[in-house]
Each structure stands twice: as structure tokens, then as C-alpha cells.
Design goal:
The protein is mainly alpha-helical. Helix content is 35%, strand content 4%. It has a two-stranded antiparallel ribbon.
């Protein structure tokens, strides 16, 4: 198993399990280790690597087959597509 194939171990995010020197180099270059996409700041890079890059969506919509990668995007989906069914408070 390669270092970059590991998504999470015991609930830890991808960036949190990288060796410190690799994460520091990644932050300095602002380059995703998985897909080589460049970012303008390290916070966006970290979010991309932890939640978006080569990840399956984790949060299923309770009303349809849609799945979101982060809870906020699921809330936006429900508000946009299912306002007749539920309010945002019912989701989380």
C-alpha cells in the first residue's frame, strides 16, 4: 500500500497522517500529492486533499440518491432540491 492510497486511519484525515516533512513541503509548494493540482493557499489545499481529491462522497441525502462530500454541500443540496420535504434543522 502506498502512502497516497491511504485515505483515513482511525478517523484521521489524509493530511494529518502525512509525515511532517512531506506535509511541510506540500504546504510550501501548494501542490496536491494525489492529483498534482496547485492551490493559492494551504487551507484550500488541505480541504481539497482531505475531502475532495479521489474521495467518494460520504454524506447521503435522506431524500434521494445524491451524496455530498461535506455536510455543508449536503445542506445546500437539500435546500435547493427538497425544500418541500424538510427544513435544514432536520438534517443535522
Amino acid at each position: 500500500m502506498q502512502l497516497f492510497d491511504v485515505v483515513s486511519v482511525k478517523g484521521r484525515l489524509f493530511c494529518d497522517q502525512l509525515p511532517r516533512d512531506i506535509w511541510r513541503r506540500c504546504k510550501d509548494e501548494l501542490l496536491c500529492l494525489k492529483c498534482a493540482k496547485r492551490y493559492s493557499d494551504w487551507r484550500s489545499l488541505r480541504k481539497h486533499m482531505n475531502f475532495f481529491c479521489q474521495m467518494e462522497p460520504l454524506y447521503p441525502c435522506p431524500y434521494c440518491t445524491h451524496r455530498a462530500r461535506i455536510p455543508t454541500l449536503l445542506k445546500y443540496h437539500v435546500v435547493r432540491e427538497h425544500t418541500a420535504f424538510a427544513s435544514i434543522e432536520e438534517i443535522y
